[in-house]
Write a structure and sequence with these properties.
single chain; 113 residues; alpha+beta; Aspartate Aminotransferase, domain 1; 3 helices; 38% strand
C-alpha cells in the first residue's frame, strides 16, 4: 500500500517504535538512523549485538493488521560503492505484543530493564 500520506507513514512508524518500548528501547539498543517507509513501517540501525544484526525493518501488513520483521546485516562495499545485505532472520504475521520478544530473540538485546 504505497498511497499513504506522510502523516500516516509517520503515525505508523511512531506506533511501531512505541510498541517496541519507545525511548527506553532506543536507549537500550542504540537505535539510530530511523527511516519511515512509504508502505507503512520503519527501518532503523541498532548497536552491536551477538547475532551481528545492524538493520531492522518492520512493516505493517494492512490487511491482517500484523507486522513483518526483517533483521539484516548491511555492509557498505567501498570497492563497488554498493551495499551488501545478509538476511539474518525474518518473521511474518507478528502481533504488536510479540515485537519486543522477537526483537530480543533475533538480536540478543533486551528492549527494557
Amino acid at each position: 500500500m504505497s498511497n499513504l500520506t506522510q502523516d500516516q507513514q509517520s503515525q505508523i512508524a511512531s506506533t511501531i517504535l512505541n510498541q517496541l518500548g519507545g525511548r527506553r528501547f532506543a536507549a537500550m539498543t542504540g537505535v539510530k538512523e530511523i527511516t519511515m517507509l512509504p508502505e507503512g513501517g520503519v527501518r532503523f540501525k541498532i548497536g552491536r549485538n551477538c547475532n551481528r544484526v545492524n538493520t531492522v525493518t518492520i512493516t505493517l501488513d494492512h490487511g491482517a493488521d500484523t507486522y513483518d520483521m526483517k533483521f539484516e546485516k548491511v555492509s557498505f562495499i567501498k570497492k563497488t560503492a554498493s551495499f551488501k545485505r545478509k538476511l539474518i532472520d525474518s518473521f511474518e504475521g507478528v502481533y504488536f505484543d510479540m515485537l519486543q520478544s522477537l526483537f530480543t530473540d533475533a538480536t540478543g538485546m533486551d528492549t527494557h530493564l
